[in-house]
Amino acid sequence: MGKFQFHFTVHCHQPVGNFDGVFREAFEKSYKPLIKTLIRHPAVKFGLHISGPVWDWIGANEPAFIADIERLTDRDQVEIISGGYYEPILEILTQQDAIGQIELMNKFIRTRFKQNPKGIWLTERVWDPSLPVLLSGLGIKYTTVDDTHFYYAGLEEKDIHGFYITERAGHPLNIFPIQKQLRYAIPFKEPSQVIDILKKYRDTGTIHSVTYADDGEKFGLWPGTYKWVFEEGWLERFLTDLEKNMDWLSMTTQAEDIESNRPTGRIYIPSASYEELLEWALPVEAATKFKLFKSSLSTIGAEECCNPFIRGGFWDNFLVKYPESNWMHKRMLLVSTMLATIESRIGLQLDDARTELFKSQSNCVYWHGLFGGVYLNYLRHAVFEHLLKAEALIDTHRPQSNGISYTEQDIDLDGMNEIILKNKHLALYIAPSKGGALLEIDVRDHHFNITNVMTRRKEAYHEIIADKQTHHSSTLSPVTIHDMTNVKEDSLDQKLIYDWHPRYSFVEHFLPSQTLELDRLHKNQYIDLGDFTLEQYTLVQHEGNTVLLSRDGHLLYGSGKHSLRIEKSYRVLEKRLEAGYRVTNTSDQKFEISMLIELNLTLLGTDGQRSLIINRDGEKDMKGMGDYLKYGKIDSLELLDQWQRLGIKISTPSLSSLFTYPIETVSASEDGLEKTYQGTCFLLVYELHMAPAESKGITLPVDFYPVRNPGDKNGTPD
Questions:
Q1: DSSP 124-188
Q2: Domain 502-706 adopts which CATH fold?
Q3: 49 touches 18 (CB < 8 A)
Q4: pLDDT of the residue at 718
Q5: At 473, is the pLDDT very low, low, confident or very high (cuts 50, 70, 90)?
Q6: Cα Rg, the chain, nearest whole Å
Q7: Which one, of 274, 366, 267, lies nearest residue 313 by Cα?
Q8: Span 178-191, mean pLDDT?
Q9: ∠446-448-453 over CA atoms, to 5°?
């Protein structure tokens, strides 16, 4: 029997849309010192997967780093591992897009490093049984998943090592299990302890290889790890210890293993990911029960034996848990279909548009667990920005038209059609089935979705805030972020407010005038007397640039339930959206009540470059997007975004009053629990004093205009 083989693989990734400063910090604290240290230890072979967004950043900012990687490939110390270029979850893409993403990465690796990729990094280790068909057709011989996947297939710990072979419809693929014990030990335990773990595997006499594969950010970027890994020399000591044990230990790549050894066995793995992600995918109530169940098993000492038979959810259910994720995903699929259709029609491949589409598929923003994910507004913005850029590039290959495009389609696949109404400057996504609301307003000239606002919802980890405990490691070494429960801000419990309806725009509420208090509105401490916010509107007609919707609903007023009709229209005029209302009292009783039209809009931040301007009586009040405000009658309100060079003016001549407050969520990040700004709620109040059969009309023009950035030459905001 030959030497015991240890596969050491690191995966480095930052999502599309992340801040340049984060890329820089990750490079300086993790990627650069990691590779520099490995260069000093040529006997330590390893696998390396770097995602496309990181390669793009390195190529633009630190090209010398690529020369370091080339040096490692030239001396056969590193195997470059492929994957979807922009780090998508492969199984939620069309087959054409999944193939395109992998081929893009394969081409980069072959061109730059002269290696023909044999392995693929599965994003978030999300495995689907159909993957062998896709991957084998691209020349991929193996992938790596967690040992958790193998437990779910019924294997025991003693059998989970080396690599297994699977297939689908006769297409084979080798699969390496990642040893969880190693994943939690590296780099958090002393190097000698890691060597002891490897010796235990060796001493069984039946295991020829084990695999460690995990995030490169654990080496320097995770909290506390830079000091531990580099300043205090953990990595240097670890690599030195590996070299000292090479009388029995062999550092080989996974590609070398499958060339020189037989599979441990044959296996079929169910759809799965790593243990923590499957728990995060559960609905909140189920996640809470799941934790209680696991805790009860631990109490009676049965957790270890039962773990293989219990599992959390399924990655795709993030698209149920977070409707915002589902909407982005289905919008992405819509653009993918548009692109495939136009390419087929013109007989050309639109590489620029496809690159923009691929960037929108970067996985991090489509789910949420330990990291911010879908709660990070700038990552959601990046998805829409690249989708809108892709749409603009597709449009250059359509017949030129300055007119109106109208489409009815079930975009989010809920069984009900949405309406797309757009011209060359604006696009509206209207949902008759969801209160006749606008789900998305795109300012196409700026590639900006101004309704990109997250709903405030309960998360299972909010229980941590309730007990107001902040936990820190009592050891000298850092702890894995899976064990961190740090609360980053005081009074976060005051931000645990949950919405009873999605944060769409142009939705209606009815409240008694005397209950209109800013704090109660912000905290959802009111009863809506109407049934319009969540209910079905009917499409009455579409004519040219206008869509007319109607709902015959009800109003709880006095001692009874009275009928009320709302007709709501949307019109696009060049760079103007015009929303129109006609409210008709169809009951036999007069009433006096406040109608609130809710808009939820975002400029992505609340800093000085993003402001709210209130216009009244010829005077202007400059406010912040994060301010809590109440005004009486105003002439208009404006949102000014100097970063996006975008101005938005909402004219309100018949308004009775205005309330505004920020939409702030409490979500987990790698540093702990934190408050995140999502957008600003604008409640436009109209007092209705209506006799039977009386109608009232309301018009809300919304104009979009360019502004100058203060950094522009001789520029001030227009």
A1: GG-B-TTHHHHHHTTT--EEEEEHHHHHHTT--GGG--S-EEEEETTEEEEEEEE-HHHHHHTTT
A2: Beta-galactosidase; Chain A, domain 5 (2.70.98)
A3: no
A4: 43
A5: very low
A6: 28
A7: 274
A8: 96
A9: 160
Which tokens belong to 592? 């006096």
Q: Which amino acid is at 435?
A: G
CATH 2.30.40.10 for domain 4-271 = no
Query: Could you give the CA distance from residue 647 to residue 644 in angstroms, rounded to a whole number?
Result: 9
Residue 634 in tokens: 């105003």
Q: Determine the Cα–Cα distance for residues 464 and 466; give it in Å rounded to an integer.
A: 5
Helix (H, G, I), strand (E, B) or coil at 315: helix
Q: What is the percentage of the chain residues whose pLDDT exceeds 70?
A: 95
* Domain edges within the chain: 4-271, 502-706
3-class secondary structure, 440: strand
Residues, the chain = 718
Q: Of 241, 156, 159, which is closest to residue 198 (Cα–Cα)?
A: 241
Residues annotated as part of the active site: 124, 215
> CB-side exposure of 714: number of CA atoms within 13 Å?
0
| Tens digit of each residue's pLDDT (9 = 90 or more) over 650-694 | 999 899 999 999 999 999 987 789 999 999 999 999 999 999 999
Residue range 307-362, pLDDT digits in tens:
888 889 999 999 999 999 999 999 999 999 999 999 999 999 999 999 999 999 99
pTM above threshold 0.90: yes
Nearest-angstrom CA–CA distance, 159 and 416? 48
Span 565-571, average pLDDT? 98
Tokens of 614: 């209130």
The predicted pLDDT at position 321 comes to 97
Cβ atoms of 26 and 2 closer than 8 Å = no
**Spatial distance between the Cα atoms of 707 and 55, rounded to a whole number of angstroms:** 34
Q: Given the DSSP bridges, would you call strands 591-601 and 576-585 parallel, antiparallel or unpaired?
A: unpaired
Q: Give the largest CA-CA distance in the chain.
A: 94
Is the pLDDT reported for residue 82 higher than 80?
Answer: yes
| Cα–Cα dist 545/403, whole Å | 8
Q: What is the pLDDT of residues 483-503, one digit of tens each?
A: 545 777 878 999 999 999 999
> How many whole angstroms separate alpha carbon 181 and alpha carbon 183?
6
Helices then strands, each counted (H, E), the chain: 21, 29
Residue 403 has pLDDT above 90, yes or no: no
Return the structure tokens found at 55.
């390669």
